[in-house]
């Protein structure tokens, strides 16, 4: 019951929006459509559930890995802030630093991983633990998983209705939001890290 006492709708919405911006499934619609044409029908349920499970598992296992290698959450969150910063620049400037879409099957690779649950998403998921409770992050992941499923199911319809121009504008808007989030994440955790060292 203590877990549910930590539930906060505000935190859930924040976690959802952060992950939503990082995953950028709307901006990935053209890629999804291209993969459908190349590999055939994508199993939306299989892809979204797999991505959701990867994020949830990493949320808990990732922290243990950090402890094993001797890295604290604040330091990892700062590293995550840099990753989010780079992703935001990609979205705003329309550049690609590291993006692979070649695969033998589309539902799990590259849709579930790395398109949805990629390095940026997993880093962000773990970075969120520095500020939010696990239950709220999990709820944010589940909501994003549902949204990813809906988008994958109707990818062709979304691209047809919105058009490339609208998708590009939406991508840049979320890029700016993501840029602001990365700066906030960096400043908050950097301040905490400095305070920990001073107290030490």
Automatic annotation (TrEMBL):
Transmembrane segments: 12-35, 47-69, 75-95, 107-129, 135-152, 173-194
Keyword Transmembrane helix: yes
Coiled-coil features, chain-numbered ranges: none
Protein localization: Cell membrane
UniProtKB keywords: Cell membrane, Membrane, Transmembrane, Transmembrane helix
Keyword Transmembrane: yes
Membrane topology: Multi-pass membrane protein
InterPro entries reported in the protein's UniProt record: Multi_antbiot-R_MarC
Family: Belongs to the UPF0056 (MarC) family.
Annotated NCBIfam families: NAAT family transporter
Protein's name in the database: UPF0056 membrane protein
Lineage: Bacteria, Pseudomonadati, Bacteroidota, Flavobacteriia, Flavobacteriales
């Amino acid at each position: 019951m203590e877990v549910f006492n930590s539930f906060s709708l505000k935190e859930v919405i924040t976690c959802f929006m952060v992950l939503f911006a990082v995953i950028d499934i709307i901006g990935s619609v053209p890629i999804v459509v291209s993969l459908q044409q190349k590999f055939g029908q994508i199993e939306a349920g299989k892809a979204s559930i797999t991505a959701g499970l990867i994020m949830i598992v990493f949320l808990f296992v990732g922290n243990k890995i950090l402890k094993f290698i001797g890295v604290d959450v604040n330091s990892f969150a700062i590293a995550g802030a840099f990753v989010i910063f780079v992703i935001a620049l990609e979205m705003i400037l329309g550049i690609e630093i590291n993006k692979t879409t070649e695969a033998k099957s589309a539902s799990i690779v590259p849709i579930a991983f790395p398109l949805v649950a990629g390095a940026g998403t997993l880093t962000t998921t773990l970075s969120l633990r520095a500020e939010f409770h696990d239950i709220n992050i999990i709820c944010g992941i589940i909501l994003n998983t549902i949204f990813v499923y809906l988008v994958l199911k109707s990818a062709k319809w979304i691209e047809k209705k919105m058009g490339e121009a609208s998708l590009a504008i939406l991508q840049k808007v979320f890029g700016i939001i993501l840029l602001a989030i990365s700066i906030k994440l960096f400043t908050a955790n950097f301040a905490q890290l400095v305070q920990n060292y001073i107290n030490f």
